[in-house]
């Protein structure tokens, strides 16, 4: 009895951590396990193990078309949001201009606005401008809500940059352009990369705003939502699990490179 | 097109250089010539304008008025990357994403110099860190980073090397070693070094010429010995080492030695060391120049009697006394522990004396405490 209590108190933190992680990962594990389910229509009941879903991820109708759209939109939205957001972050982090504090607040507004409201008003706007909802309206909408996150992420990195490094570069014969390319950009790059990853995952993930502004274009979240009403094909689990694995690999790789760069041995 | 970054050589000349930040005048109408090849120190407390002066020379700050020349080339408004000037920054500012080798090669590459490799190797050899060339800056100790910052600047063979509190972040022992090394490197490469510091010992160890700065102006400029032995203002007298400053008045100004009356005692003051403009004078004497004996002992030179020891601290090489004089002022006396007699004790009546040659005179209207609070050694 006494021994049990002692074992329990000694391992309390481990038990707590185990429960916490279980809570976090159980849904993901469930998704992963059911990607191997040998079901044809509804993926709700375990039928049996199969590799088929993984060998043929495009097996279900329209799933890869939707995935392709999501990836294309994600890449385009990430590119434009990262480009514009980084430029804005430099402007706001480096230069004092009239109205900078107001811009700082405005940048937070899209993050604070409920998505459902933003999606609906964007649709109204597109229609009154005479745009037909479709691929490009999704891209525009995604760029819009990703920019704020990029600005905030990159600005934090710029703020932590020692201005004396740029002064040292100028002192060592680097003109403005070379200073930016050789010193500023490489040092801000990790922040930009983090912002781009964030933008991509936000874009890839988005359902609410996309649903309003997509017309008849299908994205992966939209596909999942619609098919869930009829019965989700296991291929959706395969794609979901692979996205998770890819993200995991990217994070691990980033950690590895970061450690090597920092010279931790 | 003539490129100032390589062509300009010669003395550094500052003419009427002024920098204002709003209402605050950081550098006030500064005129200064720093001869080519010298090791020059700008010494002063924080906020005296020395770093601002340095940054204007580097091109990182634009003067409000005045001009900066190297030789005959006006570089006042030249971009920092077009000046034959390199800086060793206070926190070194090494590029964290580049190796030591690339840090040192940075300036050479930007100027498109050939044989980068040979020059980088030579610079690394000079600071004895060749073996670290593939490391990143954060893998180096503070002292090593300091040397790399130096190598990174020197490799460009600038007309002028600026050092902004270069040893501030190092511990005392390392700082002493680096002082000697910096001086040696300066002699070796023959580049003009302009060194900014608040540490009077650092300035005196390394520099040929020191300019003591206070509130945007140069108080006095000269060799370390000159400044120490013959200060012209109470700020210099107190900031550079310690001084006893006693109010007095000149009663006979006819001879080579002026006669000063301080509270009834006549003291000799060499005319060449008197900087008072009228008869009112602050008489100065360094604590280590004063001899101390029990009252009644006969002594030579300038003699003050009637002192009582109010505090004595034994610090090994010397004993430091506070001696209260008849007029209530406490004088500092540092006595070498080299004569075998036991140190005097608190409460002992004493007579103090010194050689007249060590006396200096300052204008009587100066603040006797100026500079003493600013001196980090007395904190």
Question: Helical stretch count of chain A?
Answer: 12
Specify the CATH architecture of the largest domain in chain A. Orthogonal Bundle
Give average pLDDT of chain A, whole number.
Answer: 89
Percentage beta strand of chain B: 25-35%
Quick overview of this protein structure:
Chain A is mainly α and 265 residues long. Chain A has two domains: 2-53, no CATH class; 64-232, MetI-like (MetI-like fold, Orthogonal Bundle).
SSE arrangement:
The complex is a heterodimer of chains A (265) and B (379).
Chain A lengths: L1 H9 L1 H23 L17 H4 L7 H32 L5 H13 L2 H14 L6 H25 L3 H9 L4 H30 L2 H6 L6 H11 L3 H29 L3
Helix pairs in contact in A: 2-12, 4-7, 4-9, 4-11, 5-7, 7-9, 8-9
Chain B lengths: L3 H4 L4 E10 L2 E11 L4 E5 L6 H9 L6 E6 L2 E2 L10 E4 L11 H11 L5 H11 L15 H13 L5 E5 L7 H18 L2 E6 L2 H7 L2 E6 L2 E6 L1 H6 L4 H6 L4 E9 L4 E6 L2 E6 L9 E6 L5 E4 L7 E13 L3 E7 L5 E7 L12 E6 L5 E4 L16
Parallel strand pairs in B: 3-8, 3-9, 6-7, 7-8
Antiparallel strand pairs in B: 1-2, 1-4, 4-5, 9-10, 11-12, 11-14, 12-13, 14-20, 15-19, 16-17, 16-19, 17-18
Helix pairs in contact in B: 3-4, 3-5, 4-5
Question: How would you describe this structure to a colleague?
Answer:
The complex is a heterodimer of chains A (265) and B (379). Chain A has 265 residues and is an all-alpha fold. Chain A folds into two domains: 2-53, no CATH class; 64-232, MetI-like fold (Orthogonal Bundle). Chain A has helices at 2-10, 12-34, 52-55, 63-94, 100-112, 115-128, 135-159, 163-171, 176-205, 208-213, 220-230, 234-262. The mean pLDDT of chain A is 89. The longest helix of chain B is centred in the middle third of the chain and has 18 residues, at 172-189. Chain B has two domains: 4-227, Rossmann fold (3-Layer(aba) Sandwich); 230-378, OB fold (Dihydrolipoamide Acetyltransferase, E2P), CATH 2.40.50. Chain B contains nine helices and 20 strands. Helices cover 22% and strands 34% of the residues of chain B. The model of chain B is unreliable at 375-379 (pLDDT under 50). Chain B is elongated. The chains are: A mainly alpha (265), B alpha+beta (379). At the A-B interface, helix 8 and helix 9 of A face strand 6 and helix 3 of B.
